[in-house]
């Protein structure tokens, strides 16, 4: 077995040269005395066919007879040549002495130390790389990268050492070796990759980094193209700075090398099969990317700078600042067309990351690219402080290898300004690099000097090759600087005076690179001057055109959204569609949901659940919540829609209610009944333990695929506050800000069962406070059939709005919270209000109790137990858009009405009261009701959502029910505790 058959990096990881020498000495004395891995390595070293064999049992030969001597080159004595002038022959050269064991050991030790030196450069060479354009980062040569550390003195530098093909050398001097290593690993590109476990991935990167011929080289045309993009980026920022003095633009000044790098992503990606790229980034450099990568018309950007909108005036919406906006475009390189989209984002750094990944995953699903992950690529552009500081970055990195969330590798590009707003790196993170968190998922990291656009472009090209081959995340950490402050009106010298003293004197990237190309003879100064002149003329022309620009259409219902539109009627309209199933489909779904294949051995408790379901379909009565949900999913799948449900423990369901996945009890293989339905695709995923990242991912998925019902389920409703940024910045306001419709459904378990403050409330008040401009829908259903129709309505209407559902906990198995077969069939549909079947007739009604959710059943049971005959309880199933007209129509039919009560379980400052009170009053006024206002019945205002003490909970619950119905509080508490 030869030396190259062994991975020295794995064998010698973390060991010192002295230890290896000692180990080799033991091996030469007694091979059996060393561990088998080292023994195999030493044997391979000595038996390598690629180099000499220093020692053998048969060599050197010890016999000295003439025949043996004639065959032994170390003992052969050629006949002496005659001396010049006919004198005596010159004396024969002395025979070389046999190689001693000490010499063999020294040669072996040299080879081993050289390999350890190589490995050290592979692991730590980036620490000596020339990365900082400003020279502020003092990077002394680490001791273990010096030859002395590995046992090579100055006298050894020019002695040849056997390398056996490593680095492209059979034999090399230490000087030659170190010169090559420093060029490979310590130039303007530093690579971290030895933390990667996969040998093939490491070798792939080594082959492209290592060797005497591995200098970064671009053709003349390539160099010109790179410089031209740098000039475009730089002149764009200068032009904006001149035309809009002091206006915030969050310019790329100092980081212009990113623009040719992104161009290379498109170019090389297209060559490698990429047909769609989804980009996410914060505000730094966004306008530059929009103009010079996304090809957004410059006149539109100038129009926006002047205060105009990119959309027609009649579209409405709030709009957003120009450096938050997204766009889409098609670019073509070398005959390869690539569709690109830049996702809109808020100022919350990194918030767009999961949206980009979710959108990419949806595109891959639609294009049948989930196996190869070749055609669709996510690219995320980060700031250095944000990449290190924002937890969402790690949540998104964690998706990279997870079923249902993997996108086949994301290219991460860090604009490393070496400062975050006013905070220097040493105060912003505990690690040497902002990218260090990415090593947790074994992503390779390229550190590169932003003043060298060729190096940045080279790193990007390698990143694309790696991603397309291995389908894994990869990071480019471009060290640059921020020429101005956090924004153009900021004064950075308040906090970084030394850095900005250097920046003021530092030439721009185009000057640094342009002068380099002039010295190389690639271009001359007139070439640069002409390019700048032509670009300035184009910018001036677009600037003039921006003054008269008028948008004529809104870009939000094209592509995959074709056929959908904004609602044509008002938010308060009925907006219903028929969502019932045919009898045939209903029965077919029943068989699918209750048939257990012989190959699946289910849990005995699940068997009892399925027996109960069979009885439901047989009798047509008693359908529970989970069955209603499964029927909704199955009906949509049979009609060709997709269904994607994700969340923590969604397969089984937090409360063991769903059982969408059946796990075989003998070998744990899984069976998913709904995946047996043809036409549609069903996914149910137990997500990572994340709210922020997963909710953002699902929002992005729904953004790309309006024909799939995308649902995110919180384990408990209160966990949703971990994703508040996604709710505030995307779900409730994305359509208004960016004209991006979305049909995401959020399922939030909610209800007061005495289980404490943490798992009682999904905080519905926060969603209702955000309701305006027909932006979202908020519902709290109380029957399985109404929930069924709500989900189906979400896909059958010709528009999409996010839907927030307060889903039940105890109602999942409540004896009253059931539906009958006919409720799911025929012309049935979603009902915004549900009447009380046991309530008083309209003419006899004196007290109308309005409520929503689980408390309705508490009220109904208490009312019926007391024998009240003048009380009607009406459930408000949809809170927003609020059904004011239907409520007004109900009230108008109650001539003897004396009191209207709003009852809720939640404290007065939580829940629904502050939202519904003025709307109920408005509805009463619209029909001239003698009752002018509703009365509140519920818990008092509280800092905590609920008590954690069961007795107190029962007392509070009994009191609010009694208050709503006009009963004795003492009697109601006694009855509640008894039940």
UniProtKB/TrEMBL annotation:
GO terms for biological process: glycolytic process; tricarboxylic acid cycle. Its cofactor is thiamine diphosphate. Transmembrane segments: none annotated. InterPro entries: 2-oxogl_dehyd_N, 2oxoglutarate_DH_E1, DH_E1, KGD_C_sf, ODO-1/KGD_C, THDP-binding, Transketolase-like_Pyr-bd. The keyword Oxidoreductase applies. Keywords: Glycolysis, Oxidoreductase, Thiamine pyrophosphate. Residues 623-814 form the Transketolase-like pyrimidine-binding domain. Pfam families: 2-oxogl_dehyd_N, E1_dh, OxoGdeHyase_C, Transket_pyr. SMART domains: Transket_pyr. GO terms for molecular function: oxoglutarate dehydrogenase (succinyl-transferring) activity; thiamine pyrophosphate binding. One of its GO terms (cellular component) is cytosol. Its EC number is 1.2.4.2. Coiled coil: none annotated. Residues 72-97 are annotated as: Disordered. E1 component of the 2-oxoglutarate dehydrogenase (OGDH) complex which catalyzes the decarboxylation of 2-oxoglutarate, the first step in the conversion of 2-oxoglutarate to succinyl-CoA and CO(2). Belongs to the alpha-ketoglutarate dehydrogenase family. Homodimer. Part of the 2-oxoglutarate dehydrogenase (OGDH) complex composed of E1 (2-oxoglutarate dehydrogenase), E2 (dihydrolipoamide succinyltransferase) and E3 (dihydrolipoamide dehydrogenase); the complex contains multiple copies of the three enzymatic components (E1, E2 and E3). This is 2-oxoglutarate dehydrogenase E1 component. It comes from Sphingomonas aerolata. The lineage of its organism: Bacteria, Pseudomonadati, Pseudomonadota, Alphaproteobacteria, Sphingomonadales.
């Amino acid at each position: 077995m030869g030396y190259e058959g062994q991975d020295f990096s794995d064998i010698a990881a973390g060991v010192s040269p002295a230890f290896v020498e000692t180990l080799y000495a033991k091996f030469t004395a007694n091979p059996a005395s060393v561990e088998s891995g080292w023994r195999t390595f030493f044997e391979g070293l000595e038996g390598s066919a690629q180099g000499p064999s220093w020692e053998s049992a048969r060599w050197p030969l010890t016999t000295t007879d003439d025949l043996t001597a004639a065959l032994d080159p170390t003992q052969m004595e050629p006949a002496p040549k005659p001396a010049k002038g006919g004198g005596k022959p010159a004396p024969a050269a002395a025979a070389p002495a046999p190689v001693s064991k000490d010499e063999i050991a020294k040669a072996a030790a040299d080879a081993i130390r050289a390999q350890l030196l190589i490995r050290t450069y592979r692991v730590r060479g980036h620490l000596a790389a020339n990365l900082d354009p400003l020279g502020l980062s003092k990077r002394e040569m680490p001791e273990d990268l010096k030859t002395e550390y590995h046992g090579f003195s100055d006298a050894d530098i020019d002695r040849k050492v056997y390398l056996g093909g490593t680095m492209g050398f059979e034999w090399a001097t230490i000087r030659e070796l170190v010169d090559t290593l420093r060029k490979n690993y310590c130039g303007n590109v530093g690579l971290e990759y030895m933390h990667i476990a996969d040998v093939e991935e490491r070798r792939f990167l080594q082959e492209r980094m290592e060797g005497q011929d591995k200098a970064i080289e671009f053709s003349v045309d390539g160099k010109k193209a790179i410089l031209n993009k740098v000039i475009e980026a730089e002149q764009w920022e200068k032009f904006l700075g001149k035309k809009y003095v002091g206006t915030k633009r969050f310019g790329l000044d100092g980081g212009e090398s990113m623009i040719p790098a992104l161009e290379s992503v498109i170019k090389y990606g297209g060559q490698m099969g990429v047909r769609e790229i989804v980009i996410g980034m914060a505000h730094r450099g966004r306008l530059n990317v929009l103009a010079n990568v996304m090809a957004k018309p410059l006149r539109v950007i100038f129009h926006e700078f002047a205060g105009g909108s990119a959309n027609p005036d009649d579209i409405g919406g709030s709009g957003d600042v120009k450096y938050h906006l997204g766009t889409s475009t098609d670019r073509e390189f070398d005959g390869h067309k690539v569709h690109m989209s830049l996702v809109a984002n808020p100022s919350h750094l990194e918030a767009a990351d999961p949206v980009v990944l979710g959108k990419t995953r949806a595109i891959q699903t639609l294009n049948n690219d989930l196996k190869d992950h070749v055609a669709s690529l996510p690219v995320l552009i980060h700031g250095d402080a944000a990449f290190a500081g924002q937890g969402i970055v790690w949540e998104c990195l964690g998706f990279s290898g997870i079923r249902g969330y993997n996108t086949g590798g994301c290219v991460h590009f860090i604009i490393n300004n070496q400062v975050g707003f006013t905070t220097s790196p040493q105060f912003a993170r505990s690690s040497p690099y902002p990218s260090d968190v990415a090593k947790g998922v074994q992503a390779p990291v390229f550190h590169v000097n932003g003043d060298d656009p060729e190096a940045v472009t080279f790193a990007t090209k390698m990143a694309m090759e790696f991603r397309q081959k291995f389908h894994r995340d990869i990071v480019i950490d471009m060290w640059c600087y921020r020429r101005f402050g956090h924004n153009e009106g900021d004064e950075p010298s308040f906090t970084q005076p030394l850095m900005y003293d250097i920046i003021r004197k530092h030439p721009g990237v185009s000057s640094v690179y342009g002068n380099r190309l002039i010295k190389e003879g690639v271009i001359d100064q007139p070439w640069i001057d002409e390019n700048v002149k032509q670009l300035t003329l184009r910018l001036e022309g677009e600037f003039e055109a921006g003054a008269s620009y008028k948008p004529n259409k809104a870009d939000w219902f094209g592509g995959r959204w074709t056929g959908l539109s904004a609602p044509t009627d008002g938010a308060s309209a009925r907006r219903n569609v028929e969502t019932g199933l045919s009898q045939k489909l209903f029965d077919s779904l029943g068989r699918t949901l209750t048939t257990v294949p012989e190959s699946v051995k289910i849990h005995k408790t699940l068997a009892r659940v399925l027996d109960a379901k069979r009885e439901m379909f047989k009798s047509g009565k008693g359908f529970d919540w989970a069955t209603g949900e499964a029927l909704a999913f199955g009906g949509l799948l049979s009609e060709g829609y997709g269904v994607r449900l994700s969340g923590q423990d969604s397969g089984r369901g937090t409360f063991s209610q769903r059982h969408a996945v059946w796990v075989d009890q003998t070998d744990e293989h899984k069976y998913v009944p709904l995946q047996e339905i043809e036409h549609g695709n069903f996914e149910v995923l137990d997500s990572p333990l994340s709210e922020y990242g997963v909710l953002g991912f699902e929002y992005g998925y729904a953004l790309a695929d309006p024909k799939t019902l995308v649902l995110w389920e919180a384990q408990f409703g209160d966990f949703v506050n971990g994703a508040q940024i996604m709710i505030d910045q995307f779900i409730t306001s994305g359509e208004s800000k960016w004209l991006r419709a979305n049909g995401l459904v959020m399922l939030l378990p909610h209800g007061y069962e005495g289980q404490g403050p943490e798992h009682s409330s999904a905080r519905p008040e926060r969603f209702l406070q955000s309701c305006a401009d027909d932006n979202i829908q908020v519902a709290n259903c109380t029957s399985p059939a109404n929930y069924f129709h709500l989900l189906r309505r979400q896909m059958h209407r010709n528009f999409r709005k996010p839907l927030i559902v307060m889903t039940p906990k105890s109602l999942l198995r409540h004896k009253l919270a059931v539906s009958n077969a006919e409720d799911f069939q025929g012309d049935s549909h979603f009902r915004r209000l549900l009447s009380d079947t046991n309530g008083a007739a309209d003419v006899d009604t004196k007290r109308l109790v309005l409520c929503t959710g689980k408390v309705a059943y508490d009220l109904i049971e208490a009312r019926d137990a007391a024998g009240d005959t003048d009380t009607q309880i009406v459930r408000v199933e949809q809170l927003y858009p609020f059904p004011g007209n239907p409520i007004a129509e109900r009230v108008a039919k109650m001539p003897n009405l004396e009191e209207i009560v709003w009852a809720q379980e939640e404290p007065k400052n939580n829940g629904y009261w502050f939202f519904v009170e003025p709307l109920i009053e408005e509805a009463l006024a619209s029909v001239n009701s003698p009752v002018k206002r509703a009365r509140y019945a519920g818990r008092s205002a509280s800092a905590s959502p609920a008590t954690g003490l069961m007795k107190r909970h029962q007392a509070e619950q009994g009191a609010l029910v009694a208050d709503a119905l006009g009963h004795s509080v003492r009697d109601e508490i006694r009855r509640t505790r008894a039940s």
